[in-house]
Amino acid sequence: MINEKMFVNGSWVESCSQKRDEVKNPATDEKIGTIPSANREDASKAIEAANQAFRLWSKMTAYERSNIMYKAYEQLLIKKDEIAAIMTLEQGKPLSEAKNEVKMAAEYLKWYAEEAKRVYGDTLPSSHQNKRLMVIRQPIGVVAAITPWNFPASMITRKIAPALAAGCTVVVKPSELTPFTAVEIFKVLHKAGFPNGTINLVTGEGAIIGKEFLENQVVRKIAFTGSTRVGKYLYQNASEQVKKLSLELGGHAPFIVFADSDIDQAVNSFIISKYRNAGQTCICANRLYVEESIKEAFITNLVQKVKEMKTGDGFDEDIDIGPLIDKKAYEKVHSQVKDAVNKGGIILTGGHRYHVKGKKGYFYEPTIIENVDNTMDIYYEETFGPVAPIITFASEEEVIQKANDSLYGLAAYVFTKDLGRSYRMLEELEYGIIGINDPIPGVVQAPFGGWKESGIGREGGYYGMDSFLETKYASIDIY
């Protein structure tokens, strides 16, 4: 049984209330440990610790901050296998995917260790002989980060690494479903030598801790990854203090396959995009658009390969798909499948809960549904599960219209050999991330974020530094 604590001001602590929350293994639906259930007083203490540490951390040189971040990067790689095992235990994804995620989490620390040394200002040409004009960038202050359960390691470092590099101090609230991965990351950060109060971890219910983040004036910025519903709540309430936000919200990615594409490549890429992390990925393919002339060949190939996929406990060998995170997630996925079938959808494979011997978790068969139209919930709503609806199209213009017919605008995928079409699709699709013949476009050096109701702001690359920095202009009279 795992029983961990929160990390505040350089110490591992219980919550003020002494209450604890259970954490379950999604593969077995059994308790694996407990974690402190923080209240607003706990969150306030963490915020104050970050505030007290801000002056020291922000005054350190970029090289000093960078050195500590490099140590964290190195330590995280050393602990990769250990942290990955904990992630699979509490989140369910196959162990190989968990290892890759921890590596990605480390890469964010490495990238921003370098970006810390690349925060530049400007000198401006003056219109007056007696004036010198300059612009400097300074850290915004205390940052609160709220992270999701689907990527419990990389979403932490993608938020706090640029914040720390900029000179900000942080308070992290991880998902209550996957807190142990966050705890392990903070053990690494602590060992790397961050000054007390620079990094803080509070665990518990998002609504309670989030309210303190919103109302505490010390918090200058909130970085959030999660549902569009919660993102809208944060957006609305942050306006009371004009608090800065970056929001990475829901997605409903179209995956578009043109007749001139390599069918094998497109099928294999779709499987990677759709079924990674059991489809519980904000940028995973949600709507599969296939040009009519290759529909039969594409579907035959896809169904055959999907039927060969293995579902089970993430610790089992050769597993492709782990469990859904909990019963609520299963009910949402299955509800969309039933709705589609009731409205004329045809299941080509899957469509049911998958039972793993000796496991009580909520596994779901990798599913493909044909004859999908815009009357179905799955056409417009994010699924967050291993279900693929197939929609056909006859022309480039038609599929652009269909793909853009969404409240979301996070990621889109296009498979074609036509270079001109690639450019046209890149320009016409209303999405923040476009994968052209690429099912995994996310890398640490690139901006990650969406259009429309998929959020505001960008994380990743040098773009990810901007929202953690304030701009200050000075005019100096030299005579």
TrEMBL record:
Domain Aldehyde dehydrogenase: 12-473
Pfam families listed in its UniProt record: Aldedh
InterPro entries registered for this protein in UniProt: Ald_DH/histidinol_DH, Ald_DH_C, Ald_DH_CS_CYS, Ald_DH_N, Aldehyde_DH_dom, Aldehyde_DH_NAD(P), Aldehyde_DH_Superfamily
A molecular-function term among this protein's GO annotations: succinate-semialdehyde dehydrogenase (NAD+) activity
GO biological process: aldehyde metabolic process; gamma-aminobutyric acid catabolic process
PROSITE patterns found in the cross-reference section: ALDEHYDE_DEHYDR_CYS
Highest taxon in the source lineage: Bacteria
Keywords linked to the UniProt accession: Oxidoreductase
Family, per entry: Belongs to the aldehyde dehydrogenase family.
Protein name per Swiss-Prot or TrEMBL: Aldehyde dehydrogenase
GN (gene name): gadD
